[in-house]
């Protein structure tokens, strides 16, 4: 009976493990039956910050913000990122302040109750391309460009999906009808996307001399957007590494103390010596 039970439990465990491995591989497969409705599954790109102890490439964050300013900011907002957030990450205090001063912000009211225009400062957010949602839709044929502050966390696949989307534009295959004003991208759910391809070789000129290929430009802007969504990532991993080291040390100390304090009890030998006169009462005084 025990052998049958053990065999059944072993078969059940093997089935569960096999099913898990199969589902994992199916989830990683680039093409699947419902691809058109859900979009092509992106590949696993080697972004350094995705590794367990990997951190952001801060030079890439700086170049990525340049790409955002020159390409993406024409349509997309970045409401949750302020100029001060860039200080110490990709720019110095003076550089961030100078960029902020390139823009005018509406402030007020003043002493007369009037709103006024002033130059930007570090406490201001990255400016929006449109005044409101209606203006954004009117300028984009009814489509609303999403805010990119949390885009890498708001999309399944994260940075891999954004990279694949930006580099995945291609001609529609035979039999696929794309409406006027839309573009074909197999990574976008449904295959039709209002955003046109905007990243090409040489679309920006990097100040540090990095080759401005389309793949490099995409990698940089995706890295910047990943930082915008998770600016605490480096610190979180640093704290996690410290916590792992601390708790590992405490575990070793606890094991040593347990072994040192309890070994005399756990290894002692208890011996029972029976009385010589086992059948005699202890109250019997006679010899």
Structural overview:
- The longest helix is centred in the last third of the chain and has 34 residues.
- The strands form two sheets. The chain has a two-stranded antiparallel ribbon with strand order 1-2.
- Strand 1 and strand 2 form a beta hairpin.
- The model has no long low-confidence stretch (mean pLDDT 89).
- With 287 residues, the chain is mostly helical.
- It has nine helices and four strands, in the order H-H-H-H-E-E-H-H-H-E-E-H-H.
Please provide a brief summary of the model:
The chain is mainly α and 287 residues long. Helices cover 43% and strands 4% of the residues. A hairpin with an 8-residue loop joins strand 1 and strand 2.
Using the CA coordinates, give the radius of gyration: 32 Å
SS field, number of helical segments? 9
How are the strands of the biggest sheet laid out side by side? 1-2
Helix content: 40-55%
Q: How much strand content do the residues show?
A: under 5%
Q: Give the overall silhouette.
A: elongated
Structural class: mainly alpha
Q: Biggest β-sheet, characterized?
A: 2 strands, antiparallel
- In the predicted model, the low-confidence regions spanning at least 5 consecutive residues are none
Rounded mean pLDDT score: 89
């Amino acid at each position: 009976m025990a052998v049958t039970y053990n065999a059944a439990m072993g078969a059940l465990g093997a089935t569960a493990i096999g099913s898990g491995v199969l589902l994992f591989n199916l989830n990683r497969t680039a093409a699947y039956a419902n691809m058109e409705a859900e979009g092509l599954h992106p590949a696993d790109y080697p972004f350094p910050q995705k590794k367990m102890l990997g951190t952001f490439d801060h030079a890439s964050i700086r170049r990525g913000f340049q790409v955002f300013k020159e390409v993406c900011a024409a349509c997309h907002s970045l409401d949750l990122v302020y100029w001060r957030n860039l200080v110490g990450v990709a720019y110095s205090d003076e550089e961030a302040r100078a960029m902020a001063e390139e823009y005018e912000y509406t402030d007020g009211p003043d002493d007369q109750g009037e709103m006024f225009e002033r130059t930007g400062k570090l406490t201001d957010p990255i400016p929006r391309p449109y005044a409101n949602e209606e203006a954004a839709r009117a300028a984009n044929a009814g489509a609303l460009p999403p805010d990119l502050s949390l885009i890498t966390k708001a999309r399944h696949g994260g940075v891999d999906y954004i990279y694949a989307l930006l580099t995945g534009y291609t001609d529609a295959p035979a039999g696929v009808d794309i409406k006027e004003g839309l573009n074909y991208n197999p990574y976008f759910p449904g295959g039709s996307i209002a955003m046109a391809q905007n990243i090409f070789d040489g679309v920006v000129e990097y100040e540090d001399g990095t080759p401005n290929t389309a793949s490099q430009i995409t990698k940089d802007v995706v890295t910047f957007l990943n930082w915008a969504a998770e600016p605490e990532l480096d610190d979180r991993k640093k704290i996690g590494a410290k916590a792992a080291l601390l708790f590992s040390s405490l575990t070793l100390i606890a094991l040593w103390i347990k072994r040192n304090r309890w070994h005399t009890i756990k290894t002692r030998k208890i011996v029972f010596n029976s009385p010589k006169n086992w059948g005699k009462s202890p109250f019997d005084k006679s010899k």
